[in-house]
Automatic annotation (TrEMBL):
The keyword Ion transport does not apply. The keyword Nucleus applies. This is m7GpppX diphosphatase. It catalyses: a 5'-end (N(7)-methyl 5'-triphosphoguanosine)-ribonucleoside in mRNA + H2O = N(7)-methyl-GMP + a 5'-end diphospho-ribonucleoside in mRNA + 2 H(+). It comes from Drosophila rhopaloa (Fruit fly). It comes from the Eukaryota. Its EC number is 3.6.1.59.
Length: 376
């Protein structure tokens, strides 16, 4: 049970995780070995929603060590291969064996993330639902996205608590205090902070007026270059990782609207690295060097989930859930997605000529027939 943190400015909530009561499962990801649950803490509130995420910890190489017995100089370290390992045999067939094993208590921990109270946007984020690709032009950003973000987004209080050293001060990996080009580097909630192989850090800039990629311009190049180089230096010094093995990128749309960069090893399939969501820091810098107002002029694709109010706003502007196809009488009408191809429509002048071409293609000359058949 987390202990409340007393502060003159901030008081963290206190809840007993064992008293969580499940309402429904939001996601169950067998690939990532994680499950997201929606429920309540009834001892605190019957109405406030809570999200609890359980995720199996990644394996550390040190946990599979088979070193010599411990000595006074070298105390015992947790390992799967010791006397505390419990093994139940499922079957053995020739050279193959299948077992269920329970390691020592030190290696059985499961990482848990709690969001309480959780908003509708949090529930949406952790739910499985249909996804749609939005192609956001600068005009659509100004007309639809920006007004929506101004009126509806996650609270940034937790971000300001970090930047003002009110919370998580002990978790800071590196800080550059410059108000224009500085930032704070600290572990993301997705990382347990132990296994360097699964490192996941966030670099949160000190400037408060940059919400996302859309706000970046040539005047921010010094900030971005410092964010890139200082992060690499700090990670190399603290964790011993080669800077050329790191992936550094922005999300669009981001989960919270205060500029931050994601950093993790290239060899890991981290959440949110899909091409329709991630923008490499190197590419962003290069784009701004070529065109200082690139992100005010570019069309940026991003994904929206079913149930997102922003998706409804885009649906009012243009078809998203349904697609437009051409009918035989050349009028556009709405039609649900179908595996049937849209009917081709031509003008009267084109019809006869195109029909002739189709007949000719459909009935090749005898000497060409075999070649056409082979190609088909």
């Amino acid at each position: 049970m987390p202990e409340p943190v007393e502060s003159a400015e901030v008081k963290s909530p206190s809840y007993d995780l064992s008293k969580f009561r499940l309402k429904r499962i939001l996601t169950n990801n067998s690939v990532r070995k994680s499950i997201s649950l929606l429920g309540t803490f009834p001892d605190l509130s019957e109405t406030d929603d809570a999200i609890v995420v359980f995720e199996k910890n990644a394996y550390r190489e040190s946990d599979v060590a088979t070193a010599e017995p411990p000595t006074k100089e070298s105390p015992k370290k947790p390992s799967y291969f010791n006397a505390e390992l419990k093994v139940a045999t499922e079957f053995i067939n020739n050279i193959y064996g299948s077992f269920q094993v329970v390691p020592s208590r030190d290696l059985c921990a499961v990482k848990s993330t709690v969001i309480y109270p959780a908003t509708d946007k949090h529930i949406e984020k952790y739910s499985v639902c249909q996804k749609y690709l939005i192609r956001e032009t600068p005009d659509l950003y100004q007309k639809i996205t920006k007004p929506y973000l101004t009126s509806s987004q996650f609270s940034l209080d937790w971000v300001y608590n970090i930047l003002d050293h009110k919370q998580e001060k002990e978790r800071i990996v590196f800080e550059d205090e410059d108000p224009e080009t500085g930032f704070i580097l600290l572990p993301d909630l997705k990382w347990d902070g132990r296994n360097v192989e699964n490192l996941y850090l966030l670099g949160i800039v000190h400037k408060h007026d940059i919400k996302s990629l859309r706000d970046l311009n040539g005047s921010h190049l010094d900030l971005l270059r410092n964010l890139r180089q200082s992060s690499k230096d700090a990670i190399s010094k603290r964790y011993g990782l080669n800077p050329n093995q790191l992936r550094m990128y922005f999300h669009y749309q981001p989960s919270f609207y205060h500029l931050h960069v994601h950093i993790n090893p290239v060899k890991n399939d981290a959440p949110g690295i899909w091409c329709e969501k991630s923008h490499m820091l190197d590419t962003v810098i290069n784009n701004l060097e070529l065109l200082p107002d690139y992100y005010q002029r570019a069309t940026l694709p991003f994904v929206l989930y079913e149930g997102n109010k922003l998706l409804d706003l885009y649906e009012e502007e243009q078809p998203i859930r349904k697609v437009l196809v051409l009918s035989d009488d050349k009028e556009q009408r709405e039609k649900k997605p179908s595996t049937t191809a849209a009917t081709e429509v031509f003008s009267d002048e084109e019809s006869e000529e195109r029909q002739c071409k189709r007949i000719k293609l459909a009935t090749p000359e005898p000497k060409e027939a075999e070649a056409v058949k082979a190609c088909a």
